[in-house]
Amino acid sequence: MSTAWQFREATLKDVDNLVALEQRCFDYSRMGARSFKRLLAADSAHLYVCEHHGTLVGYYLLLTRKNSQRWRLYSIAAAPESRGTGLGRALLEHAIEIARNNAAISLSLEVKTDNTTAIRLYEKLDFAVTDLLPGYYDDGTDGYRMRISFND
To answer: Residue 51: which residues within 8 A CB-CB, separation 6 or more?
Structure first.
C-alpha cells in the first residue's frame, strides 16, 4: 500500500477533507475549518497531507516560531482504515525529514500517556520523553512531551 502514498503540502481545497479526518480520528481537541484555513495562511505552519489513490488518508502539522530551530509536531492523523499499514510511521518519517531539511535542531510533540501505540512508534524513531504534563488534555488525561534532536 505504501507505494501509492502521495505526500504534498495541503491547500485550501483540502480543508473539508481535513475536518472530516479530524472527526474520524479524534474525540477531543479537534480542529475545525477555520483553524485549518488560518494555519494554511500562516508562515509558521507546515501542513502536509498524504493521499492514497486520490483519497486523503493522513496529515501532519508542524509548527515553528520565528528565529527558532526547534519545531513542534502539533498534530498527526492517519485514517482509521489505514491503521496498521505503516502510514503513521510514514507520516512521522516525512515530518522528521521536512523538519531536518529546514534546519530544525529538534522536533517535539505531545502525546496522551495512555496512547501506547503512538508512544512506541515515537520511541522507535528516537523520540524520548522529556516531560510529564499532568492533566494536559481536555479530558484530564496526562500527556508526555517527547523530543527528537538532530545532531547532523
So the answer is: 5, 6, 8, 57
